[in-house]
């Protein structure tokens, strides 16, 4: 017989435990609470009860349970989509299944995460390298990498490439970054008290989030209008054309889930999820290697031996770049971009680690707690890529490394994200040795959690190696 709803920290009137959560390192706080309340505990965020899942065994069980594959309804998101639940990231059931299948199928055919996309990423890497070479002061990498990430994704979604110094693009990337830091993955005060959204000033975190949402939405809507005006149904150029074609095919089908609102929300999901996380991961990788010059040196030695300086590293080099692979895995372990995944929700009553989880309970799966478990890793706080290298020198693949999640809700962009991180990061360390600009001291690298985890502000000097 299942135990009841999992117990947890105290519930204060109206607000529950929400105001006591440490906003900018919420994954760490949630993990800490598990030492008192157990790996699966219940917590009230406002009047709603939520379940937090920690540790490998419990997270693995939760991710394998399809009854926990829903998404909670969240006020902020419903406001983004004019009161509807649309897109792929925050939908569930048949709509989600159909749209996710269509999206993955067509993005893959267009070259998503495949060798044919490497040329595009190499072009972006070369442009980025040029821009860094021409900078005569220390640089803030995150916006620059954000621009690269947009171009890499947009090549498949919208078919065009933006100029790196396009001011509109830079504003968009900047607002996206701010939005991801201002947001709260476990829900904000507006999600607890929806009526408050009318009173939130533009300068509040909620205002920043809505501003970011609307900026992306405007960008997507404009692109869709341009596609409609110029598309040739027989020769679809990119993902938006393919989707518009599918809409035409289903024109007379009232049951169809392919429509304008859905296309806007889907592209907004892909664009938001796919650009900030990518640039955050490369930034974290550069930040950690800059603070560990011995790691940077070893990386450069390996790349010089396997690739040399005459061409950019390619995905074909990957199996030979063992140390590089270990560094990137260690970056994901220590500073994965989505430590709490995207909130899940029980689609029906179910059981987790013997606890009863009622239908519609929000469930947060804490990947950080897996990746930082001292009993398993020994010295989880230490940046030590060697932990992923076996004594015989080969790469050690660890089943606990799931920075993209696992199961049916696993990140839709994993193949692209892995390829982008590898190609941009290796190109940068092949060409430059980075050092910190002491004007912005980085006292710790834990980063800033919002919707996702982003690096702390930092600037680097890039010394050319050739
Ligand atoms: C390093 C970069 C990235 C990391 C660490 C990451 C991680 C994640 C994680 C942990 C989830 C949630 C899994 C769950 O709910 O259990 C997720 C979902 C998702 N990601 Fe990523 N992601 C990254 C990059 C990308 C990229 C490049 C794209 C798109 C092009 C993307 C698109 C999505 C989408 C659409 C979902 C929602 C999937 C669904 O609900 O069915 N992500 N990601």
Automatic annotation (TrEMBL):
The UniProt entry's GO CC annotations, sorted and at most eight, read: cytoplasm
Where heme binds, per the record, is at: 411
The lineage's top-level taxon is Eukaryota
Per its UniProt record, what InterPro entries does this chain match? Cyt_P450, Cyt_P450_CS, Cyt_P450_E_grp-I, Cyt_P450_sf, Cytochrome_P450_fam2
Q: Carries keyword Lyase?
A: no
GO MF, one example = iron ion binding
**Keyword Translocase carried by entry:** no
GO biological process, any: organic acid metabolic process
Could you tell me which Pfam families the record lists for this protein?
p450
User: Could you tell me which SUPFAM superfamilies the record lists for this protein?
Assistant: Cytochrome P450 (SSF48264)
CDD domains associated with the record: CYP15A1-like
Sorted alphabetically, the keyword list is:
Heme, Iron, Metal-binding, Monooxygenase, Oxidoreductase, Signal
Q: Which cofactor does it need?
A: heme
Name the family the entry cites.
Belongs to the cytochrome P450 family.
Q: What is this protein called?
A: Cytochrome P450
């Amino acid at each position: 017989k299942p135990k009841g709803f999992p117990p947890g920290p105290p519930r204060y009137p109206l607000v529950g435990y929400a105001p006591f959560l440490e906003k900018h390192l919420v994954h760490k706080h949630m993990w800490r609470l598990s030492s008192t309340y157990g790996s699966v505990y219940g917590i009230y965020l406002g009047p709603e009860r939520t379940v937090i899942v920690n540790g490998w065994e419990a997270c693995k069980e939760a991710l394998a349970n399809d009854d926990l594959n829903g998404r909670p309804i969240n006020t902020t998101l419903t406001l983004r989509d004019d009161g509807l639940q649309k897109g792929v990231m925050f939908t569930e059931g048949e709509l989600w299944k159909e749209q996710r299948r269509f999206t993955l199928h067509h993005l893959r055919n267009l070259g998503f995460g495949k060798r044919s996309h490497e040329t595009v990423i190499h072009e972006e890497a070369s442009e980025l390298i040029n821009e860094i070479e021409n900078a005569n002061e220390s640089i803030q990498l995150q916006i620059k990498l954000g621009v690269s990430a947009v171009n890499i994704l947009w090549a498949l979604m919208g078919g065009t490439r933006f100029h790196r110094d396009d001011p509109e693009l830079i504003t968009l990337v900047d607002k996206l970054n701010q939005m991801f830091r201002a947001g709260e993955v476990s829900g904000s005060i507006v999600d607890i008290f929806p009526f408050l959204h009318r009173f939130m000033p533009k300068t509040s975190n909620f205002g920043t989030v809505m501003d970011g949402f609307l900026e992306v939405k405007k960008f997507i809507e404009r692109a869709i209008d341009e596609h409609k005006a110029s598309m040739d149904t027989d020769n679809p150029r990119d993902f938006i054309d393919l989707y518009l074609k599918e809409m035409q095919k289903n024109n007379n089908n009232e049951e169809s889930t392919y429509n304008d609102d859905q296309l806007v929300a889907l592209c907004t999901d892909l664009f938001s999820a796919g650009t900030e996380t990518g640039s955050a991961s490369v930034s974290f990788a550069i930040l950690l290697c800059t603070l560990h010059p011995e790691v940077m040196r070893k990386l450069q030695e390996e790349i010089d031996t396997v690739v040399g300086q005459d061409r950019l590293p390619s995905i074909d080099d990957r199996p030979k770049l063992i140390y590089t692979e270990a560094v990137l895995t260690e970056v994901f372990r220590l500073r994965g971009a989505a430590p709490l995944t995207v909130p899940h929700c029980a689609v029906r009553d179910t059981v987790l680690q013997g606890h009863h989880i009622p239908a519609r309970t929000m469930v947060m799966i804490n990947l950080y707690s897996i990746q930082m478990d001292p009993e398993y890793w020994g010295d989880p706080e230490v940046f030590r890529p060697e932990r992923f290298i076996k004594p015989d020198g080969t790469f050690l693949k660890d089943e606990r490394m799931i920075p993209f999640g696992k199961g049916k809700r696993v990140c839709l962009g994993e193949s692209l994200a892995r390829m982008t991180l590898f190609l941009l990061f290796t190109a940068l360390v092949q060409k430059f040795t980075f050092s910190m600009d002491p004007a912005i001291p980085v006292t710790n690298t834990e980063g800033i959690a919002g919707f996702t985890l982003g690096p702390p502000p930092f600037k680097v000097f890039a010394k050319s190696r050739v």
